[in-house]
Write a structure and sequence with these properties.
The chain folds into four domains: 47 residues, no CATH class; 181 residues, Nucleotide cyclase, GGDEF domain (Alpha-Beta Plaits, 2-Layer Sandwich); 205 residues, P-loop containing nucleotide triphosphate hydrolases (Rossmann fold, 3-Layer(aba) Sandwich), CATH 3.40.50.300; 129 residues, no CATH class. The protein is built from 23 helices and 16 strands. The strands form three sheets. Strands 1, 2, 3, 4, 5, 6, 7 and 8 form an eight-stranded mixed beta sheet that branches. Helix 14 packs across helix 15 and helix 17 packs across helix 18. The two termini are 29 Å apart.
Length: 609
């Protein structure tokens, strides 16, 4: 870098310069080339302040380059049906009022699903999910938002106001566009918004259509009707599209994939044996509690699924609480959803029929007294029976009655059969469900109850000091286990070089192993085995979500990625132009987030995918 600065300030016009073409020839991608050249330029500018200035001819200066970011986004485009006819038949003020009602519904829904409105264009609205903050379920949020918009317009009941939606997922570049005062922030460049807009034209009024690219990310979470491959204006190849009918009842990706063959379980024999023994103890009336903990994609749900499959032939009852990132502030949401499944609710609106079904369910357990029926009916949103003497309308009184009813229900169920209580994704648990689980742990000592929680490393169990809960950490797979899993996923033998590359890039994380191996197998006919392995779309959202939680140190992450998979901490400090203490704190945060991990040499860090 010093040599380049000396050359830049010398009078020689023939001295070699480090150019973008040089870095391209070295194999660096465009983002890395840009960052490196900018860093060198800043370094040289600092050196220039310490050198005598040399007269230079004045040249025009262009505006500095605008920062942009490459992302995978799911784009939702919603359009008012028959807007041209409406403009012809309605007064301009009435049309404006109608469009504002449409835009308000769209904005409220997108905000609720934590997406972002990209653009209001006349009778159309573009929203995107995955920026500025990515979520692991961004595509699912986008599709659900489209369905919510349609439902919101129906509830609005405005004559002549009907919409249709298109949803597509793809790579884009996000940044400023325009010049001077006309610059616009967070504009999207790429195919995704255009394809989403074209797709909505295939949707009947009041419905939503999505592309196959989005379907791959949400398959099983929605019921769909295939419409076949369609040619879209401006798109060279046909795109398979699907009309979304409704959301399914699947609470997570494993339930969504029910009926599909699961990847073979590899390297978890010891952990499965441990859980099986704990279950056997619970069957004898010795209540058990285990926290299954590990990073995202490490196989917690897969291990749990295997245990549940193993217990299918054993008489028992399951109580499953699926925690959700979208319902962390919804009191007892996992318990309510479990009761819906247990009672066989499928979106019925008939309160009388719902109460009757609840009464029969509790009657089978000899629990049909009003002090159980009414609190649970209240929890499920049914109107209270006027004959039930609840006393003053005290929320705390109702809360205590609900908790007492749930406790009695669990106790009654375990008297008939051993009970497996599963709390999935406890890192997203709401405070009320936390209290409910704590109550179960307190009462379980002499019950046939096995409480099994899954959570990521950041979760701190609030009951760990007051209950006999055992934490079972899940480690990454060894090289031998990784190779065995790759062979189990790949439909054919992979060349040794490709196998080694997959082992190196997946770092023993089962989800990465599965998705990258599938991606390689699917692209074999098009790319061959010599191609660079790209991160598949099924992993992009999860990785961006983890990086977005570390936004303050994003620049350090980018510099580390430029240095390579294995890098020296001192080198990162030297080239990162940051305070050494700040870089060390950033490395600590990255290790805590399990995006990198230290090697034997304490000055080296090895980033994961």
């Amino acid at each position: 870098m010093r040599t380049r600065c000396w050359l830049r300030t010398s009078n020689s016009t023939s001295s070699p310069q480090l150019t973008d073409a040089d870095l391209m020839a070295a194999g660096l991608p465009v983002g890395a080339r840009k960052r490196l050249l900018e860093a060198i330029e800043r370094f040289c500018d600092d050196q220039d302040t310490e050198m005598p200035s040399i007269s230079q001819p004045t040249v025009p200066v262009t505006e500095p380059p605008v920062e942009a970011e490459r992302r995978q986004l799911t784009v939702l485009f919603s359009d008012v049906v028959g807007s041209t006819h409406l403009a012809e038949t309605l007064d301009a003020e009435d049309l404006r009022s109608l469009l504002l009602s449409f835009q308000k519904v769209c904005a409220e829904v997108v905000q609720r699903r934590e997406g972002q409105i990209g653009l209001f264009i006349g009778d159309g609205v573009t929203a995107y999910f995955g920026y500025p903050r990515a979520h692991e379920d961004s595509a699912q949020r986008a599709v659900q938002a489209g369905l919510d918009i349609m439902a919101g317009l129906t509830e609005l009941g405005t004559d002549g106001l009907e919409a249709r939606c298109g949803v597509h997922t793809g790579p884009v570049v996000i940044g400023e566009l325009g010049v001077g005062e006309k610059r616009l922030c967070d504009r999207i460049v790429g195919e995704a918004p255009n394809i989403a807009a074209r797709l909505q034209a295939f949707a009947p009024p009041g419905s939503l259509v999505m592309s196959e690219a989005t379907l791959r990310l949400v398959e099983g979470f929605f019921e769909v009707d295939p419409l076949g491959p369609q040619m879209l204006k401006g798109v060279s190849a046909p795109i398979a599209i699907y009309r979304v009918l409704r959301a399914s009842a699947a609470p997570n990706r494993f339930e969504a994939r029910s009926g599909q063959s699961l990847t073979p379980l590899v390297g978890r024999e010891t952990e499965l044996g441990f859980l099986t023994r704990r279950w056997e103890n619970a069957m004898e009336g010795e209540g058990q509690a285990v926290l299954l903990q590990g990073e995202a994609g490490i196989g917690k749900s897969r291990l749990l699924q295997t245990l549940r499959m193993q217990l299918r032939e054993v008489p028992h009852t399951e109580i499953i609480f699926y925690c959700s990132p979208q319902h962390q502030t919804s009191a007892l949401w996992p318990a309510i959803q479990h009761l819906h499944r247990a009672l066989g609710f499928a979106g019925e609106k008939d309160d009388v029929a719902g109460r009757e079904r609840l009464r029969h369910f509790l009657g089978d357990l000899d629990l049909d007294s009003a002090d159980l029926v009414e609190p649970l009916a209240t929890l499920l949103g049914f109107p209270s029976d006027p004959g039930w003497n609840t006393g003053p309308a005290d929320p705390e009184h109702v809360r205590r009655a609900v908790f007492a009813a749930l406790s009695r229900l669990t106790f009654a169920v375990q008297r008939r059969n051993p009970v497996l209580v599963v709390v999935e994704d406890a890192h997203w648990i709401d405070p009320s469900t936390t209290e409910l689980v704590g109550q179960m742990l307190t009462d379980m000592a002499s019950q046939r109850l096995f409480v099994l929680l899954t959570a990521r490393p950041e979760f701190r169990a609030p009951w760990s000091n007051s209950s006999p809960m055992v934490t079972l950490p899940l480690a990454r797979l060894s090289r031998r286990e990784t190779e065995a899993m790759i062979r189990g996923v790949a439909p054919y033998d992979l060349p040794a070089a490709m196998l080694a590359q997959l082992v190196a890039k997946t770092d023993g994380v089962p989800l990465f192993i599965e998705e990258l191996t599938k991606s390689v197998a699917e692209s074999r006919s098009n790319l061959g085995f010599g191609a660079v392995i790209e991160i598949p779309a099924t992993l992009q959202a999860a990785l961006h979500a983890r990086l977005d939680r570390l936004a303050p140190i994003r620049q350090i992450i980018q510099v580390a990625a430029l240095l390579g998979r294995v890098f020296d901490a001192d080198l990162l400090i030297a080239v990162g132009q940051r305070d050494a203490a700040a870089v060390k704190r950033a490395l600590h945060d990255l290790i805590e987030a399990e995006l990198i991990y230290p090697r034997k040499n304490p000055h080296c860090r090895r980033p994961t995918i």
